[in-house]
Specification:
single chain; alpha+beta; four-stranded antiparallel β-sheet; three-stranded antiparallel β-sheet; 17% strand
Length: 213
């Protein structure tokens, strides 16, 4: 099945298979019993994409130096993504079409029955309400002791904040940062005063990226 309910999707997205609802099936989605499982990520695909310079949403090669990351506000603070980069138009399509990214009240479905391992790093189990498309020329991978790898994102060339499939307001972004920071601060408190001071510096840096009124 290749017909999509999204006629304006980028060509590489339109070329993906779709599920019975007409939603494109991202390249990273694993299959169980012959069906795509959108709640899970195939870690093999993520590693393969990073290693072979592929967009992990569509599976196609990158052209040029720019890479896009679809991240939450807390990832904007620590500049770390649990997922590899994607094409900018794939990222924009994702924040407009993905139910979890485009609906602030949506929740992740229960994954206890899935054969998957949690993403590396500190997983924040919440829908932040806003999503950031971060475009950069550089990133590096960091293997994690528990397995898998994180992606240390380079300085932004541009950023775009999204909510409900549209540009997010300054108030929405600030509220999402405010509500998420305690989760990072709790972790930093375990590491001591130096970690807290570093978190304050990273937060101040991230706040400079918040959109104007």
């Amino acid at each position: 099945m290749t017909a999509s309910r999204f006629p304006d999707a980028p060509p590489q997205i339109a070329a993906l298979k779709v599920d019975e609802r007409g939603y494109p099936i991202p390249w990273f989605v694993p299959w169980f019993d012959g069906k795509p499982e959108f709640r899970a990520v195939d870690p093999r695909q993520a590693a393969y994409a990073a290693r072979h310079n592929l967009c992990w949403v569509c599976g196609r090669p990158f052209q040029g130096a720019l890479r896009s990351f679809t991240i939450g506000p807390m990832c904007a603070v620590n500049r770390v993504s649990p997922e590899p980069p994607e094409h900018l138009d794939c990222a924009i399509f994702a924040v407009r079409a993905c139910p979890f990214l485009s609906r602030p009240m949506a929740k992740r479905r229960n994954t206890a029955d899935l054969e998957r391992r949690p993403p590396p790093g500190l997983m924040i189990e919440r829908n932040p309400g806003v999503t950031l498309v971060w475009v950069t020329r550089s990133y590096r991978t960091e293997k994690q002791p528990e397995g898998g790898q994180l992606y240390r994102i380079g300085p932004p060339v541009s950023v775009g904040w999204w909510s409900e499939g549209r540009n997010a307001t300054r108030a929405e972004v600030l509220e999402s940062i405010r509500s998420g920071l305690p989760l990072l601060r709790n972790r930093a408190e375990l590491d001591g005063p130096a970690a807290l001071a570093q978190l304050d510096r990273m937060t101040e840096r991230a706040l400079k990226l918040v959109p104007a009124e």
